[in-house]
User: What shape does this take?
Amino acid sequence: MSLVVVPVRYPLSKHSRRTLERAIEVARDRDAALTILHVDLYQNGKKVTRIDLKAAVESTFGRLENTRYVVRTGFLVEESILDEVAAEDADVVVIGSKQASRLRRLFQRFTDNPNIDQYLRTHLDCEVITVESARA
Assistant: This one.
């Protein structure tokens, strides 16, 4: 079974809800498992639990089948996302355009290739779907 990973903020922002909605569609269309990931930053001192994340998602989208809720703690959101994608051998990553911009800047620091989709395909062998922010 294939796997879709979607990183989100907690509490869910408008952009996270939009990104999550797209990830749910992709997982259903591909009959894939879904991992919803939140990265709790050490430096923020907040503790978000899997239960918090699951409750927030289910209050917006209802109960989701074949879904795993993951909260990782780290210093860099981008690095934690990449670690999770690699560890889970994800087939698809659905990220918001703001996260894509942050990842692009991170890649530019470490590589000469700012193309996230190409980088992830080359290094992690997964597809990246970027969800544009809603326009007001």
User: Anything to note?
Assistant: The helical segments are 14-29, 50-61, 77-88, 97-110, 116-123. The CA atoms of residues 108 and 114 lie 5 Å apart. The longest helix spans residues 14-29.
